Structure formats: C-alpha cells, structure tokens
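forwarding from the other thread:

> can someone predict this with flavin mononucleotide?

sure thing
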Amino acid sequence: MSFLNNLEWRHATKIFDTEKKVSDSDFEKIKEAIQMTPTSFGLEPFHVKIVTDQAVKDKIQPVSWDQPQVGSCSHLLVFCARTDWESRINDYFEMASGGKAEIKEKMNPYEQMMRGALKDRTEHQILDWARNQAYIAHGFALAACAELKIDSCPMEGFDNEAVNKILGLPNHMKSVVMMPIGYRTEDPHHGKVRYPESDLFS
Ligand SMILES: Cc1cc2nc3c(=O)[nH]c(=O)nc-3n(C[C@H](O)[C@H](O)[C@H](O)COP(=O)(O)O)c2cc1C
C-alpha cells in the first residue's frame, strides 16, 4: 500500500531547503485534503493561515523556540481553532440549503440539535472542541504531504499568544498547531521510533 510506504518515508523535518518551493498545483491538493477533513457536525471550526512571506516567517521563528523549520520552509501553515460556532451554524445551513427557505425549514430540527449540543459549553470547552477538529485537519494535511512526497513538520512548540499577535488573528481564532512544509535538506533524522503494536492495540 503506497500510503503506508509514504508514511514510512515522511519524518518530522527539522530544516528545509530554502531554494525549493512547493508548487501551486501541489499546494492546491494539500488545501483540498484539509477541506475534505471530517469534522464535528461538519462545522469545520478551524481556519488555516498560510504564511509564505519570509518577513513573517522570520518573526514567527523566534517565538517558536527558534526552530529553523519555520524560517526555512516553503509554506508555513498555522492551524487556528475558531470559536464563532453560532455564525458557523448560520453559514452551514445557508450552504446546505442553497439559500432556499423551504429546505432550511426542513433542516431546522438538525439545526436545533446542533445549537442545543453547543450552547451550554463554556468558551474553554468550545475552544477545546474546535482545537480537536483543527488537529484532524492537521493530520490530513500531514498525510497529503506524504502522498505528494512533500516534507512537513507537525509543530506545537511555539508561543500561541505571540503567533496570534503576529498574524493579527481576530478574537474568535486561536493558533493551536503549525505545519511548515517544503523539501528536506541536510536534516538530522535518526530513523523511526515507534512503540510496538502490543503496546498500542489490544
Ligand atoms: C502535535 C505535534 C507537535 C509536535 N511539535 C514539534 C515541534 O514543535 N518541533 C519538532 O521538531 N517536532 C515536533 N513534533 C514532531 C514529533 O516529535 C515527531 O512527529 C515524532 O517524534 C515522530 O517522528 P516522525 O514524525 O519523524 O515519524 C510534533 C509532533 C506532533 C504530532
């Protein structure tokens, strides 16, 4: 199965070749994989900031434990959780009904079920819920990169507040996980370390 071979091939890349850029056509495929991510109620409560401007990457690297993959990558994807669930639901039913009032009416019980499931959650709980969805999208993007033989590094090692400020994120968006992508260079990689199947499954 080539998917498994590609997962074996990928590794958390620590430094990228600054001369090599991901093509627009490959990047479109990565975006499509992110868009196809299954999410809770289909609300896709995340947003991905795409950073290609070197000046912005250079601002983010020092607040990311100075990890060189940030400054050297082709594209830096910053996955943000979004907490504006009410307007997200409005938009969802507008799209799902094609703007037709009678279809919206028929979908009303589903809409009320969604609102009911989310309305009593604290802001913190909503953020946790949205963060989980952003991580699923992050996983899909990692897998898409592996399929395209594009290198990537999943990254939590950064100051979220500082990144929110650098990117000028609105209040309802919080950076949660990043993914610099590009092509590997002299990358210190010591092979895969994985717990045995007996540890992971029973
Ligand atoms: C959520 C998450 C956060 C991570 N954060 C970092 C990071 O900040 N810097 C880094 O170099 N690697 C980071 N990693 C990479 C892991 O260390 C790496 O995936 C793991 O050791 C397995 O190695 P492999 O991905 O090369 O197979 C992170 C991985 C995940 C999934």
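The domain at 2-172+181-186 is CATH 3.40.109.10 (NADH Oxidase). thats all i got for now
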